[in-house]
Amino acid sequence: MVDDDHVYRVMELDSPDDLKLFELKAFKENSSREAYSDLSRVVVDYAKGIPLALTVLGSTFRHCNSVEEWGDELKKLKKFPNKKIHDVLRLSYNRLEENEKGIFCYANGQMDVKRRIDRHRRERRRKSVEDGYRKRRRRGRFIGAKDSVERSQA
Q1: What CA–CA distance (Å, rounded) separates 10 from 12?
Q2: What are 71-89's pLDDT values in tens digits?
Q3: What does DSSP assign to residue 10?
Q4: Bridge partners, 110 (sequence order)
Q5: What are phi and psi of 128, to 5 degrees?
Q6: With a threshold of 0.85, does the pTM exceed it?
Q7: How many CA atoms does the CB half-sphere of 88 hold within 13 Å?
Q8: What angle do CA 145, 148, 150 make, to 5 degrees?
Q9: Kind and range of the H or E element at 111?
Q10: Which residues, 6+ apart, have CB-to-CB distance to 35 below 8 Å?
Q11: Best CA proximity match to 70, nearest among 92, 44, 88, 91
């Protein structure tokens, strides 16, 4: 059961775990990492400790063969967010059950559940009211405003 008074957030990795995960994906086993330490920290800060982002970005930077290529990739990343991260999140979201989809929203690098729960509940209430209206109307039990006025005048 989700509590309305709490916002549940994705657990982020702390330093140095975030850097370790990124480096695990970004570097080949025997490669030197010293020349890339500042750039690695910039990428890790960009990922905000989110493991999925660290993994995808590490795989992206793994294909860069020089500090210059890393710099170019970093400029691209700052200008255009990494589409692979969005694609992985979309795939994960699409695999959720319908009731689970109504709960999660990825926003600003964090899962902000409370706003989606509130919106989901409002939608359910609205749908429930509309369904009740349709059922009463089908059964002939619905009395509209016009009918009420006519009956009160009779």
Answers
A1: 6
A2: 999 999 888 888 888 787 7
A3: P
A4: 107
A5: -60, -45
A6: no
A7: 11
A8: 110
A9: strand 110-111
A10: 67
A11: 44
